[in-house]
Amino acid sequence: MFCERAMELVRELHRAAEGRLPAFNEDGLRQVLEEMKALYEQNQSDVNEAKSGGRGDLIPTIKFRHCSLLRNQRCTVAYLYDRLLRIRALRWECGSVLPSALRFHMSAEEMEWFNHYKKSLATYMRSLGGDEGLDITQDMKPPKSLYIEVRCLKDYGEFEVDDGTSVLLKKNSQHFLPRWKCEQLIRQGILEHVLS
Amino acid sequence: MSEAYFRVESGALGPEENFLSLDDILMSHEKLPVRTEIPMPRLGPFFLDRSGGTETDNAIPQGSKLELPLWLAKGLFDNKRRILSVELPKIYQEGWRTVFSADANVVDLHKMGPHFYGFGSQLLHFDSPENTDISQSLLQTFVGRFRRIMDSSQNAYNEDTSALVARLDEMERGLFQTGQKGLNDFQCWEKGQASQITASNLVQNYTKRKFTDMED
Fold it and tell me: Where is the GINS subunit domain (chain B) (predicted)?
Protein backbone atom coordinates (compact mmCIF):
# COMPACT_ATOMS: atom_id res chain seq x y z
CA MET A 1 0.00 0.00 0.00
CA PHE A 2 1.20 3.50 -0.66
CA CYS A 3 1.86 6.32 1.82
CA GLU A 4 3.50 4.16 4.48
CA ARG A 5 6.58 6.36 4.63
CA ALA A 6 4.41 9.46 4.96
CA MET A 7 2.54 7.86 7.84
CA GLU A 8 5.85 7.20 9.59
CA LEU A 9 6.62 10.93 9.48
CA VAL A 10 3.25 11.72 11.02
CA ARG A 11 3.64 9.05 13.70
CA GLU A 12 7.12 10.27 14.58
CA LEU A 13 5.77 13.74 15.33
CA HIS A 14 2.69 12.46 17.10
CA ARG A 15 4.90 10.34 19.39
CA ALA A 16 7.11 13.28 20.39
CA ALA A 17 5.60 14.34 23.71
CA GLU A 18 3.69 17.62 23.41
CA GLY A 19 5.81 20.31 21.92
CA ARG A 20 9.16 18.51 21.63
CA LEU A 21 10.90 18.88 18.30
CA PRO A 22 12.47 15.68 16.90
CA ALA A 23 15.27 15.88 14.33
CA PHE A 24 14.18 16.88 10.83
CA ASN A 25 13.61 13.67 8.92
CA GLU A 26 15.20 14.64 5.63
CA ASP A 27 15.51 11.05 4.44
CA GLY A 28 11.90 10.24 5.14
CA LEU A 29 10.73 13.35 3.34
CA ARG A 30 12.87 12.55 0.33
CA GLN A 31 11.39 9.04 0.14
CA VAL A 32 7.85 10.40 0.24
CA LEU A 33 8.63 12.81 -2.59
CA GLU A 34 10.14 9.96 -4.61
CA GLU A 35 6.99 7.90 -4.15
CA MET A 36 4.90 10.86 -5.25
CA LYS A 37 7.02 11.25 -8.37
CA ALA A 38 6.62 7.57 -9.25
CA LEU A 39 2.84 7.71 -8.70
CA TYR A 40 2.55 10.84 -10.81
CA GLU A 41 4.54 9.34 -13.69
CA GLN A 42 2.53 6.12 -13.63
CA ASN A 43 -0.67 8.14 -13.73
CA GLN A 44 0.58 10.34 -16.58
CA SER A 45 1.29 7.28 -18.65
CA ASP A 46 -2.01 5.59 -17.76
CA VAL A 47 -4.00 8.73 -18.56
CA ASN A 48 -2.44 8.83 -22.01
CA GLU A 49 -3.26 5.19 -22.51
CA ALA A 50 -6.82 5.72 -21.34
CA LYS A 51 -7.33 8.63 -23.73
CA SER A 52 -5.61 7.43 -26.88
CA GLY A 53 -5.59 3.68 -26.30
CA GLY A 54 -9.24 3.45 -25.30
CA ARG A 55 -8.36 1.98 -21.90
CA GLY A 56 -11.21 3.56 -19.95
CA ASP A 57 -10.95 0.69 -17.47
CA LEU A 58 -7.78 2.30 -16.12
CA ILE A 59 -9.73 5.15 -14.58
CA PRO A 60 -10.31 3.55 -11.16
CA THR A 61 -6.60 2.76 -11.00
CA ILE A 62 -5.72 6.34 -11.87
CA LYS A 63 -8.07 7.51 -9.15
CA PHE A 64 -6.46 5.11 -6.65
CA ARG A 65 -3.01 6.56 -7.35
CA HIS A 66 -4.37 10.11 -7.27
CA CYS A 67 -5.84 9.51 -3.80
CA SER A 68 -2.43 8.26 -2.70
CA LEU A 69 -0.76 11.38 -4.10
CA LEU A 70 -3.19 13.60 -2.19
CA ARG A 71 -2.62 11.58 0.95
CA ASN A 72 1.16 11.90 0.68
CA GLN A 73 0.73 15.61 0.15
CA ARG A 74 -1.49 15.91 3.20
CA CYS A 75 0.90 13.99 5.45
CA THR A 76 3.90 16.00 4.29
CA VAL A 77 2.22 19.38 4.69
CA ALA A 78 0.85 18.43 8.12
CA TYR A 79 4.32 17.23 9.17
CA LEU A 80 5.99 20.46 8.10
CA TYR A 81 3.25 22.66 9.56
CA ASP A 82 3.20 20.92 12.93
CA ARG A 83 6.97 21.33 13.16
CA LEU A 84 6.59 25.06 12.54
CA LEU A 85 4.04 25.25 15.35
CA ARG A 86 6.57 23.61 17.66
CA ILE A 87 9.35 25.94 16.48
CA ARG A 88 7.12 28.94 17.06
CA ALA A 89 6.49 27.71 20.62
CA LEU A 90 10.25 27.64 21.13
CA ARG A 91 10.48 31.41 20.70
CA TRP A 92 7.98 31.88 23.50
CA GLU A 93 9.46 29.27 25.81
CA CYS A 94 13.23 29.49 25.27
CA GLY A 95 13.64 33.09 24.16
CA SER A 96 15.35 34.29 21.02
CA VAL A 97 18.49 32.19 21.46
CA LEU A 98 17.84 28.48 20.99
CA PRO A 99 19.80 25.79 22.84
CA SER A 100 22.36 24.40 20.40
CA ALA A 101 20.95 20.87 20.72
CA LEU A 102 17.73 22.16 19.20
CA ARG A 103 19.33 23.96 16.31
CA PHE A 104 20.61 20.65 14.95
CA HIS A 105 17.07 19.34 14.86
CA MET A 106 15.94 22.01 12.45
CA SER A 107 16.40 22.18 8.70
CA ALA A 108 17.98 25.27 7.15
CA GLU A 109 14.56 26.47 5.96
CA GLU A 110 13.09 26.03 9.43
CA MET A 111 15.93 28.05 10.93
CA GLU A 112 15.22 30.77 8.38
CA TRP A 113 11.53 30.69 9.29
CA PHE A 114 12.43 31.00 12.97
CA ASN A 115 14.55 34.07 12.26
CA HIS A 116 11.76 35.68 10.26
CA TYR A 117 9.29 34.94 13.04
CA LYS A 118 11.63 36.46 15.64
CA LYS A 119 11.90 39.60 13.54
CA SER A 120 8.15 39.89 13.03
CA LEU A 121 7.57 39.46 16.74
CA ALA A 122 10.24 42.02 17.61
CA THR A 123 8.79 44.55 15.14
CA TYR A 124 5.36 44.03 16.58
CA MET A 125 6.55 44.40 20.16
CA ARG A 126 8.38 47.61 19.30
CA SER A 127 5.17 49.06 17.88
CA LEU A 128 3.34 48.69 21.19
CA GLY A 129 3.47 50.80 24.34
CA GLY A 130 4.67 54.12 22.94
CA ASP A 131 8.39 54.81 22.31
CA GLU A 132 9.92 51.94 24.22
CA GLY A 133 7.86 49.06 22.93
CA LEU A 134 6.49 46.31 25.15
CA ASP A 135 8.00 42.89 25.73
CA ILE A 136 4.96 40.66 25.66
CA THR A 137 7.01 37.50 26.19
CA GLN A 138 7.49 38.65 29.79
CA ASP A 139 5.07 38.38 32.68
CA MET A 140 3.47 35.19 31.38
CA LYS A 141 1.89 34.87 34.79
CA PRO A 142 0.36 38.01 36.34
CA PRO A 143 3.02 39.57 38.60
CA LYS A 144 2.29 40.02 42.30
CA SER A 145 5.29 42.20 43.18
CA LEU A 146 8.11 44.20 41.60
CA TYR A 147 10.87 42.28 43.36
CA ILE A 148 11.10 38.53 43.88
CA GLU A 149 13.18 36.12 45.90
CA VAL A 150 15.28 33.80 43.74
CA ARG A 151 17.69 30.96 44.45
CA CYS A 152 20.47 30.18 42.03
CA LEU A 153 20.44 26.60 40.70
CA LYS A 154 23.62 26.73 38.63
CA ASP A 155 26.73 28.86 38.60
CA TYR A 156 26.07 31.73 36.20
CA GLY A 157 28.54 34.45 37.10
CA GLU A 158 28.18 38.21 37.37
CA PHE A 159 24.76 39.66 36.76
CA GLU A 160 24.20 43.40 36.48
CA VAL A 161 21.15 45.03 38.05
CA ASP A 162 19.58 48.27 36.76
CA ASP A 163 21.26 50.65 39.23
CA GLY A 164 24.71 49.47 38.14
CA THR A 165 25.51 47.11 41.00
CA SER A 166 26.22 43.54 40.08
CA VAL A 167 25.35 40.32 41.82
CA LEU A 168 27.33 37.09 41.77
CA LEU A 169 25.04 34.24 40.82
CA LYS A 170 26.65 31.23 42.46
CA LYS A 171 24.92 27.92 42.97
CA ASN A 172 22.59 27.96 45.99
CA SER A 173 22.94 31.69 46.63
CA GLN A 174 19.72 33.56 47.24
CA HIS A 175 18.91 37.05 46.07
CA PHE A 176 16.14 39.63 46.08
CA LEU A 177 15.97 40.93 42.53
CA PRO A 178 13.66 42.84 40.18
CA ARG A 179 11.18 40.50 38.58
CA TRP A 180 11.73 41.68 35.02
CA LYS A 181 15.43 40.91 35.11
CA CYS A 182 14.97 37.39 36.43
CA GLU A 183 12.11 36.03 34.39
CA GLN A 184 14.25 34.81 31.49
CA LEU A 185 16.79 33.15 33.78
CA ILE A 186 14.06 31.39 35.73
CA ARG A 187 12.53 30.08 32.51
CA GLN A 188 15.93 28.80 31.47
CA GLY A 189 16.32 26.90 34.72
CA ILE A 190 19.24 28.93 36.05
CA LEU A 191 17.31 30.58 38.86
CA GLU A 192 14.42 29.29 40.92
CA HIS A 193 11.55 31.51 42.01
CA VAL A 194 11.19 31.14 45.77
CA LEU A 195 7.79 31.84 47.25
CA SER A 196 7.74 33.20 50.76
CA MET B 1 3.53 20.05 28.43
CA SER B 2 4.55 22.98 26.32
CA GLU B 3 2.20 25.87 26.93
CA ALA B 4 3.01 27.70 23.74
CA TYR B 5 2.47 24.74 21.37
CA PHE B 6 -1.05 24.78 19.92
CA ARG B 7 -1.49 21.76 17.71
CA VAL B 8 -4.20 21.58 15.04
CA GLU B 9 -7.25 20.02 16.69
CA SER B 10 -9.17 17.07 15.28
CA GLY B 11 -12.25 17.89 13.23
CA ALA B 12 -13.38 14.28 12.93
CA LEU B 13 -16.43 14.68 15.13
CA GLY B 14 -17.75 17.36 12.81
CA PRO B 15 -18.61 17.21 9.11
CA GLU B 16 -14.99 17.10 7.90
CA GLU B 17 -11.57 16.14 9.18
CA ASN B 18 -9.03 18.92 9.59
CA PHE B 19 -6.50 18.64 6.79
CA LEU B 20 -3.55 19.56 8.99
CA SER B 21 -4.55 17.63 12.10
CA LEU B 22 -2.10 14.82 12.94
CA ASP B 23 -4.86 13.14 14.99
CA ASP B 24 -7.20 13.08 12.00
CA ILE B 25 -4.48 11.69 9.74
CA LEU B 26 -3.91 8.85 12.20
CA MET B 27 -7.63 8.26 12.56
CA SER B 28 -8.20 8.04 8.81
CA HIS B 29 -5.44 5.46 8.53
CA GLU B 30 -7.67 2.88 10.20
CA LYS B 31 -9.20 0.31 7.89
CA LEU B 32 -12.72 -0.68 6.95
CA PRO B 33 -14.13 -3.51 4.83
CA VAL B 34 -15.01 -2.63 1.22
CA ARG B 35 -16.15 -4.44 -1.91
CA THR B 36 -14.85 -3.51 -5.35
CA GLU B 37 -17.62 -2.91 -7.88
CA ILE B 38 -15.34 -2.81 -10.92
CA PRO B 39 -12.00 -4.45 -11.78
CA MET B 40 -8.95 -2.31 -10.96
CA PRO B 41 -6.08 -3.05 -13.34
CA ARG B 42 -2.40 -2.95 -12.38
CA LEU B 43 -3.06 -2.82 -8.64
CA GLY B 44 -2.88 -6.58 -8.18
CA PRO B 45 0.61 -6.52 -6.61
CA PHE B 46 -0.84 -4.80 -3.53
CA PHE B 47 -3.33 -7.53 -2.86
CA LEU B 48 -1.49 -10.60 -4.05
CA ASP B 49 -4.04 -13.15 -2.92
CA ARG B 50 -6.76 -11.42 -4.93
CA SER B 51 -4.83 -10.51 -8.03
CA GLY B 52 -6.12 -11.71 -11.37
CA GLY B 53 -2.67 -12.30 -12.83
CA THR B 54 -1.11 -10.93 -15.99
CA GLU B 55 -3.98 -11.89 -18.37
CA THR B 56 -6.20 -9.39 -16.57
CA ASP B 57 -3.44 -6.74 -16.53
CA ASN B 58 -2.79 -7.65 -12.86
CA ALA B 59 -6.21 -6.43 -11.87
CA ILE B 60 -8.01 -6.69 -8.57
CA PRO B 61 -11.20 -8.41 -9.73
CA GLN B 62 -14.67 -6.95 -9.41
CA GLY B 63 -16.44 -8.12 -6.27
CA SER B 64 -13.26 -8.50 -4.19
CA LYS B 65 -13.55 -7.97 -0.49
CA LEU B 66 -10.70 -5.84 0.81
CA GLU B 67 -9.72 -3.84 3.87
CA LEU B 68 -8.81 -0.32 2.87
CA PRO B 69 -7.83 2.66 4.99
CA LEU B 70 -10.56 5.25 5.50
CA TRP B 71 -8.75 7.89 3.45
CA LEU B 72 -8.66 5.63 0.42
CA ALA B 73 -12.23 4.43 0.84
CA LYS B 74 -13.40 8.06 1.08
CA GLY B 75 -11.44 9.01 -2.02
CA LEU B 76 -12.77 6.18 -4.17
CA PHE B 77 -16.37 6.29 -2.95
CA ASP B 78 -19.15 8.10 -4.77
CA ASN B 79 -22.89 7.93 -4.26
CA LYS B 80 -23.35 5.80 -7.38
CA ARG B 81 -20.89 3.27 -5.93
CA ARG B 82 -19.12 2.94 -9.25
CA ILE B 83 -15.76 1.89 -7.87
CA LEU B 84 -16.50 0.43 -4.47
CA SER B 85 -19.16 -0.08 -1.86
CA VAL B 86 -18.49 0.09 1.83
CA GLU B 87 -19.46 -2.26 4.66
CA LEU B 88 -19.83 -1.15 8.24
CA PRO B 89 -17.16 -2.45 10.62
CA LYS B 90 -18.70 -4.77 13.23
CA ILE B 91 -18.64 -2.38 16.13
CA TYR B 92 -20.90 0.06 14.32
CA GLN B 93 -23.41 -2.62 13.38
CA GLU B 94 -26.60 -3.52 15.17
CA GLY B 95 -25.14 -6.26 17.37
CA TRP B 96 -22.61 -4.03 19.04
CA ARG B 97 -24.98 -1.07 19.09
CA THR B 98 -27.23 -3.17 21.33
CA VAL B 99 -24.31 -3.89 23.65
CA PHE B 100 -23.56 -0.18 23.89
CA SER B 101 -27.13 0.68 24.68
CA ALA B 102 -27.20 -1.95 27.44
CA ASP B 103 -24.14 -0.62 29.25
CA ALA B 104 -21.74 1.71 27.47
CA ASN B 105 -19.25 1.74 30.36
CA VAL B 106 -18.04 -1.85 30.17
CA VAL B 107 -16.70 -1.65 26.62
CA ASP B 108 -13.00 -1.28 25.93
CA LEU B 109 -13.19 1.45 23.30
CA HIS B 110 -9.45 1.61 22.98
CA LYS B 111 -9.32 -1.95 21.72
CA MET B 112 -12.25 -1.39 19.36
CA GLY B 113 -10.07 0.81 17.14
CA PRO B 114 -8.72 3.69 19.22
CA HIS B 115 -10.65 6.37 17.33
CA PHE B 116 -14.14 5.04 17.94
CA TYR B 117 -16.04 8.34 17.83
CA GLY B 118 -13.99 10.08 15.14
CA PHE B 119 -13.95 7.10 12.79
CA GLY B 120 -17.63 6.43 13.45
CA SER B 121 -18.54 10.03 12.66
CA GLN B 122 -16.61 9.98 9.39
CA LEU B 123 -18.28 6.68 8.45
CA LEU B 124 -21.49 8.63 8.04
CA HIS B 125 -20.09 9.92 4.73
CA PHE B 126 -20.82 6.56 3.13
CA ASP B 127 -24.61 7.03 3.15
CA SER B 128 -25.44 3.79 4.86
CA PRO B 129 -29.16 3.25 5.54
CA GLU B 130 -28.13 2.74 9.17
CA ASN B 131 -26.64 6.23 9.48
CA THR B 132 -29.34 7.55 11.82
CA ASP B 133 -28.90 4.58 14.14
CA ILE B 134 -25.13 4.86 14.04
CA SER B 135 -25.15 8.53 14.95
CA GLN B 136 -27.64 7.93 17.75
CA SER B 137 -25.49 5.11 19.04
CA LEU B 138 -22.32 7.22 18.99
CA LEU B 139 -24.03 9.98 20.89
CA GLN B 140 -25.71 7.76 23.48
CA THR B 141 -22.52 5.79 24.06
CA PHE B 142 -20.66 8.99 24.80
CA VAL B 143 -23.41 10.26 27.06
CA GLY B 144 -23.32 6.98 28.97
CA ARG B 145 -19.57 7.11 29.51
CA PHE B 146 -19.04 10.79 30.03
CA ARG B 147 -20.02 10.95 33.68
CA ARG B 148 -17.39 8.44 34.71
CA ILE B 149 -14.68 10.17 32.67
CA MET B 150 -15.50 13.54 34.18
CA ASP B 151 -15.62 12.16 37.72
CA SER B 152 -12.36 10.26 37.48
CA SER B 153 -10.47 13.09 35.79
CA GLN B 154 -11.58 15.55 38.47
CA ASN B 155 -10.70 13.33 41.39
CA ALA B 156 -7.44 11.62 40.46
CA TYR B 157 -4.78 13.95 41.82
CA ASN B 158 -1.10 12.99 41.74
CA GLU B 159 -1.78 9.34 41.07
CA ASP B 160 -1.25 6.71 38.39
CA THR B 161 -4.18 7.07 36.02
CA SER B 162 -3.32 4.28 33.59
CA ALA B 163 -6.10 2.04 34.85
CA LEU B 164 -8.63 4.85 34.43
CA VAL B 165 -7.73 5.62 30.80
CA ALA B 166 -7.01 2.07 29.60
CA ARG B 167 -10.43 1.53 28.07
CA LEU B 168 -11.02 5.02 26.75
CA ASP B 169 -10.78 5.89 23.07
CA GLU B 170 -8.51 8.70 21.91
CA MET B 171 -11.13 11.44 22.09
CA GLU B 172 -12.09 10.41 25.62
CA ARG B 173 -8.44 10.35 26.62
CA GLY B 174 -8.06 13.90 25.38
CA LEU B 175 -11.06 14.87 27.48
CA PHE B 176 -9.60 13.12 30.51
CA GLN B 177 -6.32 14.97 30.04
CA THR B 178 -8.10 18.31 29.81
CA GLY B 179 -9.93 17.50 33.04
CA GLN B 180 -6.65 16.62 34.74
CA LYS B 181 -5.06 19.84 33.61
CA GLY B 182 -7.96 21.81 35.05
CA LEU B 183 -7.62 19.94 38.33
CA ASN B 184 -3.86 20.47 38.50
CA ASP B 185 -4.15 24.17 37.65
CA PHE B 186 -6.75 24.62 40.36
CA GLN B 187 -4.65 22.81 42.98
CA CYS B 188 -1.66 24.89 41.99
CA TRP B 189 -3.70 28.05 42.46
CA GLU B 190 -5.02 26.88 45.81
CA LYS B 191 -1.46 26.35 47.03
CA GLY B 192 -0.60 29.89 46.00
CA GLN B 193 1.74 28.68 43.30
CA ALA B 194 -0.15 30.23 40.43
CA SER B 195 2.04 33.31 40.39
CA GLN B 196 5.28 31.38 40.67
CA ILE B 197 7.43 31.68 37.57
CA THR B 198 8.53 28.22 36.53
CA ALA B 199 11.23 26.87 34.26
CA SER B 200 10.04 26.00 30.78
CA ASN B 201 9.50 22.26 30.31
CA LEU B 202 11.14 22.33 26.89
CA VAL B 203 14.30 23.97 28.14
CA GLN B 204 14.60 21.53 31.03
CA ASN B 205 14.36 18.58 28.68
CA TYR B 206 17.00 19.90 26.33
CA THR B 207 19.47 20.82 29.06
CA LYS B 208 19.15 17.34 30.56
CA ARG B 209 19.88 15.78 27.18
CA LYS B 210 22.99 17.90 26.71
CA PHE B 211 24.65 16.27 29.71
CA THR B 212 24.05 12.79 28.37
CA ASP B 213 25.50 13.79 25.00
CA MET B 214 28.64 14.97 26.74
CA GLU B 215 29.01 11.68 28.58
CA ASP B 216 28.98 9.65 25.39
Answer: 96-189
* Domains held by chain A: number: 2
Q: For residue A81, give the amino acid letter.
A: Y
pLDDT confidence of residue B209: 52
* pLDDT of amino acid A52: 94
Q: How far apart are CA A185 and CA A146, in angstroms?
A: 16
Q: Is B163 on the interface with A (CB under 8 A)?
A: no
pLDDT tens-digit map of A92-103: 988 888 888 899
Structural domains for chain B = 1-87 (1.20.58.2050), 89-201 (1.20.58.2050)
Note whether residue A138 is domain-resident: no
ipTM value for the complex: 0.90
User: Which secondary-structure segment (H or E) carries A174?
Assistant: strand A174-178
Determine the distance in angstroms separating the CA of A12 from the nearest CA of chain B, rounded to an integer: 10
Identify the CA nearest to A27 among candidates A12, A16, A14: A12
Range of the domain at A54: 4-127
* Rounded percentage of chain B residues whose pLDDT exceeds 70: 92
- Window 80-119 of B: residues touching A by CB (8 A cutoff) are 83
Please tell me the pTM assigned to this model. Answer: 0.91
A136 is a domain residue: no
